[in-house]
Amino acid sequence: MNKNKQVGYLGPEGTFSHEAVLKVVDETDEIKPYPTILNIFEDLEDNKIDMAIVPVENSTEGSVLITLDCLTNFNNIKIIQEFQIPIKHNLLIQHGKTIDEIKVICSHQQPLAQCREYIYKLKKPVQSMPSTANAARYVTEIETAAVIGNKMLADKYDLKIIDENIQDYKNNVTRFLVLKKDAKTKPTGHDKTSIIISLYDDKPGGFYKVLYEFKEENVNLTHIESRPSKEGMGKYLFFIDMEGHKLDENISRVLMKVEKKVKMFKILGSYETINC
Amino acid sequence: MNKNKQVGYLGPEGTFSHEAVLKVVDETDEIKPYPTILNIFEDLEDNKIDMAIVPVENSTEGSVLITLDCLTNFNNIKIIQEFQIPIKHNLLIQHGKTIDEIKVICSHQQPLAQCREYIYKLKKPVQSMPSTANAARYVTEIETAAVIGNKMLADKYDLKIIDENIQDYKNNVTRFLVLKKDAKTKPTGHDKTSIIISLYDDKPGGFYKVLYEFKEENVNLTHIESRPSKEGMGKYLFFIDMEGHKLDENISRVLMKVEKKVKMFKILGSYETINC
Predict the structure, then answer these.
(1) Is residue A2 over pLDDT 60?
(2) pLDDT tens-digit series, residues A124-163
(3) Stretch B217-244: mean pLDDT, rounded?
(4) pLDDT at residue B114 greater than cutoff 90
(5) What CATH number has the domain spanning B6-87+172-180?
(6) CA distances for B245 relative to B179, B249, B267, angstroms
(7) Distance (Å, whole) CA B222 – CA B174
(8) Which residues in chain B are closer than 8 Å to A226, comparing Cβ atoms?
(9) B2 has a pLDDT exceeding 60
(10) Omega before A35 within 30 of 0, i.e. cis
(11) How far is B171 from chain A (nearest CA, A)?
């Protein structure tokens, strides 16, 4: 990556997005926390930052819907890379306290959902907060509250980890996208391409005809997701992720064929899968 | 509907789910608010209630994920009816206050998401709450807070409506399901059937082969949604809604054919679409 870039991420400091952004930026890059994913897209569109890292999908809870909606609405922002990190949750409380003294479990809604069975067994009520870092700050003030989040919170907020690896599914991972405005990428040999489409009507077989083209070109689809088009109940956009780069011959052919069959067609990017 | 049934819904009183449940129960039915959708499924499974009404999909924000997850996990609970209601949001504050004095907008995350553009123009921070009713109660205590929710909140919490119909998309509707344990339904002529499937592997064309069967039997799919199977990234369940009843000839045939091609197959119910 280039030097001295400004890179936006979903803050505040101490969140899993913070952990993710630290894995891919250079030391000379300046990282900038944002209160919402929408704000990140707005500033990237306005050239106020050079790059952004946003969560798009968790293996337990599914897609981050606001990320999909922003990818739909911001036409100049492209995906240039993807990577995933393991998400391990911990229960943290104030030093000197015990679990029996805890009256409420606080966190962002995603960790709360990813630890649903664990929380159910604790038999304590939950409180949804804007971020894990907000929840940790709250726990520093309220001695009967606990927070679910990553280990970074222990140091940053001077809290005690009383239970580790508490997510219901042990292989819990989150996929992040690296975004850039008006970006073009070259095939690397381990790429994916993401598109959004909408269909002309709801006739039987409408979506079937689209999938037929991918099958004909032997393209593997790694994810299909429907989201409301917001035009009313029963009208959907389809997010389709496939293996390959749009400059690969078979991907190039299939995209041309699909574009002719659908109402709305948009390429979100062809991007390398990187290991962190 | 029969008399003196106990019907569970997502409470507390004053939510859109409360509005929905009032549209379909008889006067003699006893309605019971629950703190979470998971609790509703648990009590229905344990025969503590006879029926339940849960939200499953909003035309702006998409599926209610916890409802899909519970439909996956509770094997004896079937969908027996569906209906939809328009969701009109309002901004409410304490009597005697003005919008300029408001410092924070409170609501459940779904209304906050459905009024994203409206809130963006207000330039005020938001606070996510467990329900619109919780948020309204908070506003009765905090004079600089406003709540987004339905009109019922004005009477119930003695608040003033200062803006109406504020959702970003005017045709905003939510689809609700009526659930019953071990229920069997008969075709009414305006039915839908919902199934969950998972595929054996991620070979190109795996999902295509499933859709082929629906196309061959001329069955219209009204919704396809993927959710993580929680077995790791890239493993999905597909929720498929189709027009018709499982006792209809073509639906019966297509379900048999699909069941043979997939790894996991579960019928969530064949159910009438009712108008409220």
Answers:
(1) no
(2) 888 888 789 989 999 999 999 999 999 999 999 999 999 9
(3) 87
(4) no
(5) 3.40.190.10
(6) 16, 9, 11
(7) 15
(8) 62, 223-226
(9) no
(10) no
(11) 6
Determine phi and psi for A85, rounding to 5 degrees: -130, 145
| 8 Å CB contact of A227 and B62 | yes
Angle CA(A76)–CA(A77)–CA(A78) in degrees, nearest 5? Answer: 115
For position B60, what pLDDT does the model report?
80
The top-level CATH class assigned to A90-163 is: alpha beta
Task: Look up the ipTM and state it.
Answer: 0.73
Candidate CATH numbers 3.40.190.10, 1.20.1730.10, 3.10.129.10, 1.10.3720.10; the one for domain B90-164: 3.40.190.10
Contact B130, A128 (CB under 8 A): yes
**Whole-number Å distance between alpha carbons of A239 and A268:** 9
What per-residue confidence (pLDDT) applies to A156?
93
Could you tell me the two tokens for A46?
């306005």
Domain with CATH 3.30.70.260 in chain A: 191-273
Per-residue pLDDT of A62-86, as tens digits, reads: 888 889 989 999 999 999 999 999 9
pLDDT at B128: 80
Contact criterion met (CB < 8 Å) for A65 and B66: no
Q: Where in chain B is the domain with CATH 3.40.190.10?
A: 6-87+172-180, 90-164
The size of chain A, in residues, is 276
Architecture of domain B191-273: 2-Layer Sandwich (3.30)
pLDDT of residue A47: 96
Minimal C-alpha gap between A28 and chain B (Å): 32
Interface touch A211/B211, C-beta < 8 Å? yes
DSSP-based three-state secondary structure for B115? coil
Distance CA A152, CA A164 (A): 13
Cβ atoms of A226 and A237 within 8 Å: the answer is yes
CB contact under 8 A, B224 and A223: no
Could you give the dihedral angle defined by the CA atoms of residues B253, B255, B258 and B259, in that order, rounded to the nearest 10 degrees? -120
Q: What is the pLDDT of residues B239-250, one digit of tens each?
A: 999 999 999 999
CATH for the A6-87+172-181 domain, from 3.90.180.10, 3.30.360.10, 1.10.645.10, 3.40.190.10: 3.40.190.10
Closest approach of A211 to chain B, Cα-based (Å)? 6
Alpha-carbon span A9 to A85, nearest angstrom = 15
* Cis, peptide link before residue B12, omega less than 30° from 0: yes
Query: CA end-to-end span of chain A, whole Å?
Result: 14
